Hints:
Elements: E1 3-7, H1 12-25, E2 28-32, H2 42-48, E3 56-60, H3 63-69, E4 75-78, E5 84-85, E6 96-99, H4 108-113, E7 117-119, H5 131-145
Parallel strand pairs: 1-2, 1-6, 2-3, 4-6, 4-7, 5-7
Amino acid sequence: MISIALFKPDIPQNTASILRLCACLGLKLHIIEPCGFNLNDPRFKRVIMDYINQSSIIRYVNFKELLNKNKKSRVILMSTKAKKSLFRFKFKNNDIILLGRESKGVADYVHKELQNKLKIPISNKTRSLNVAVTAAIASAEALRQIKKF
Length: 149
């Protein structure tokens, strides 16, 4: 099944929205530490509500651990720096969609490590989509392609 991974997330409300998305779509959520907030943060709990009990969070001490523990999966980076459109990519069943920090994206070494980097085409007048919106669009497209819905 498709999964979502967050690289050092720093906004609790976005992480909670993505976790809720994962609960609703039956996806796993991978969090690469350090997380910029405590999972007991009231802002996180207000958004996640009771969906925390219907979700699966897998935490990793760093990016390398995510790669080592998911060798059968492709990690696909969503990035405004990518050249290839999300809609011109063929997803596979065990793909992990990686999203960067809201404040800084992902580190350069992550960009260098990964082959698959995708973007969501947006207006040239705007900078980027919210990370939770990107997670929703990317996971919906991946699930549509592998015919899970």
